[in-house]
Amino acid sequence: MKEYFLKMKGGAKSPPGVGISEVMWSWLGSVTGIGILGYLSSAYFEPRDLTMIIGSFGASAVLVYAAIKSPLAQPRNLIGGHILSGLAGVFCYQIFGKVIWAAAALAVSLSIALMLATKTLHPPGGATALIAVIGGEQVHNLGFLYAIVPAGLGAFILLIVALLVNNLSKNRKYPEYWF
After folding, report:
1. Is 13 within a domain?
2. CA–CA separation, 153 vs 159, rounded Å?
3. What's the chain's average pLDDT?
4. How high is the pLDDT of residue 34?
5. Are residues 30 and 6 in contact, defined by beta-carbon separation less than 8 angstroms?
6. How high is the pLDDT of residue 154?
């Protein structure tokens, strides 16, 4: 039992800090990517009862603009993780939606299983699945379209911005790999 609790002590050193240049490039990518999604959502999608911005894109922005070397931030993971999770969330809502807590638990868990099985693990995908369940009538009315718009298309726009901004600096390279 003591060994179990000793594991919680940790033991590795804290990661090093980053320089101001890295902070600025991450900020530029994030403000551009999320800004484009927000603008497109308000100007074009919301007037048509659609949306282009969901909460999980905030977490994706952290990965694709600030943790660009992480396997979780690579294009396959970003796009695949959001689309598969969107499909899982809609499926679980449609089957189990009368019991929201069960639909939510199953949606997130199914999305994790799908992402692991397809090598597309992207933690914000769990939120994409959850939003499909708890997102309200506007999201529910999208049905499986939710996996394409906003989940897939929004992730694709974040990717395009990540490719453009992350490679402006001579010290940054994105992506590490595509597949």
Report:
1. no
2. 10
3. 97
4. 98
5. no
6. 98
Q: How crowded is residue 99: how many other Cβ atoms within 10 Å of its Cβ? A: 10
Task: For residue 150, give Cα distances in angstroms to 64, 90, 108, 145, 169.
Answer: 17, 13, 18, 8, 29
pTM equals: 0.95
> Number of folded domains in the chain?
1
Instruction: Band the pLDDT of 153: cuts 50, 70, 90.
Output: very high
- Say if CB 142 and CB 54 are below 8 A apart: no
For residues 74 and 70, give the distance between their C-alpha atoms in angstroms, rounded to a whole number: 7
- Angle at the Cα of 66 (from 60 to 72), degrees rounded to 5? 50
Please give the Cα distance from 50 to 83 (Å, whole number): 16
CA-based end-to-end distance of the chain: 42
